[in-house]
Specification:
The structure is a homotrimer of 201-residue chains. Chain A is mostly helical. Helices cover 77% and strands 0% of the residues of chain A. In chain A, helix 1 packs across helix 6, helix 2 runs antiparallel to helix 7 and helix 8 (150-165) runs antiparallel to helix 9 (170-190). The N and C termini of chain A lie far apart (52 Å). At the A-B interface, helix 1, helix 2 and helix 4 of A face helix 2 and helix 7 of B.
Chain lengths: 201, 201, 201
């Protein structure tokens, strides 16, 4: 129940990031709804296609579509308000990141991937929505050049993958993995941590 | 027979839109052929991958590849002529849109999707080619910010999905759904309807 | 053994092209690693998803991930050195192209595709990594407007597909197909062959 709530709020936060980007890029209302849906679901779609679990969850239930539409409508009719609640939304985004990392990594391991590649796919699950959003906005994906986001996801995913692999208690592993991702992400936001760009020599 | 003709002409019209874009972006002949193929088939490829019907139709028969090559060659050797027949091509594009909406939505429902998500995937089937074309041209997909195109596809797809769901006569549903998509699309072209961009507040 | 070596060096060369591009675009270290991985594996991932062979090889073994990471680290810590060895790297890239064309086309035929479409997918296998790399860098894919690369891949793939289809000796077909792709690619680099852009008339 608690996890479902985090899932839905995380999805909502991801969808808001898509809708907000669409408004910045002056897309039309359809574009706002579409980017909200992609930002919320693209990572999970990639995960499910890669492991052959089709149709992907995003198409197998209407929940994520409905949540994305709600977020899209909020971006259309109340984008001034959304700017004001950006801070709490970023927290839900971080919680969603932590949750997706656990869910994605475990689903990948259940499908038979090795811990290492399951962690990579768990990270892709968590960052795929943002990558899809940025590609549709014709921009270089933010996770590739700004903020510590993918790295937080990857470290959390590695904790989950190897914790499960060595049969540590499942609940503890989930808490530790998501905590690593969430706390590193929140700390990076709080103190504005970035990896430095690689300079050509 | 009639449907096969509409399918092939619709595919040809989609492919022309890809080839024409490639010429505008000064791509080389290979790029023209490739964008023609993507514009004609990418929506169907996404649909088939999402529902697990692989290999996708576009790779399971040579017809769409051959039609795309013909359209690509026309763009290379007769792009002046194509500009002159843009109006009839746009009509075939609208017919193709109406057909893909019916085919895509029904295939998605046959694969077990709910009517709502089948309609969403039917719309993705119809607009996916244009999105792939624009991403490869490094541009924000046109359907996200200009013209009423995706919305026409979505409304038509919803008619098909819920008509089938409530077991209305199959032929009538197909005609109604494609008519909604085609007429809305043609009207939007005729009177230059656009959704207004969402303005940041 | 020899083929495994070519595979790994080809993968390394592809990954270097991704990492180098990421450095040019001033991405951060994570972005460099990610682009290296995508450039090395995206073509094979597309191939495997299209034919339903999931999880794709890139996720089913850690080899390609490890090689990509090594190439990414080289781009981060020694990109001055890489610029100096660009010529040998380009040769390995051409060898990798020739190998991927054979592997991809044959895997597609084994999955039941016709020779023509298997050759198309074999070409996609060979050029997909570069396309993914360029899309993530928000650029029009290089294979669509510069250099003879995809065409070399396609011609080699056609040799493999129809050679196998007519049951010619398997080893000869593999050598002939990869030789066509490799030699055409090397010649195009040596004499700077390009297809001319298609001019609007």
């Amino acid at each position: 129940m608690f996890l479902t709530l985090v899932d839905f709020f995380g999805c909502f936060a991801f969808a808001l990031s898509g809708g907000t980007r669409a408004v910045e890029r002056r897309l039309d209302p359809f574009g706002v709804m579409f980017l909200a849906f992609i930002a919320a679901t693209f990572g999970g779609i990639i995960r499910d296609v890669i492991i052959g679990s089709v149709p992907p969850v995003a198409f197998d239930t209407w929940h994520y579509f409905a949540i994305s539409c709600a977020a899209g409508l909020a971006c259309i009719f109340a984008n001034g308000l959304i700017a004001k609640v950006a801070a709490p939304v970023a927290v839900f985004d971080a919680l969603g990141l932590g949750l997706y990392v656990v869910v994605g990594t475990r689903k990948a391991m259940d499908a038979g991937l090795s811990p290492l590649m399951a962690a990579v796919l768990g990270m892709v699950n968590a960052i795929g929505g943002g990558i899809g959003r940025d590609i549709l906005a014709a921009q270089t994906p933010m996770v590739l050049h700004k903020e510590i986001y993918a790295l937080a996801a990857l470290l959390g995913a590695l904790v989950v993958a190897y914790g499960d692999y060595y049969l540590l208690p499942s609940v503890l592993v989930a808490i530790a993995g998501s905590a690593v991702a969430i706390l590193l992400r929140l700390a990076a936001m709080r103190w504005d941590w970035n990896l430095p760009p690689v300079a050509p020599k």
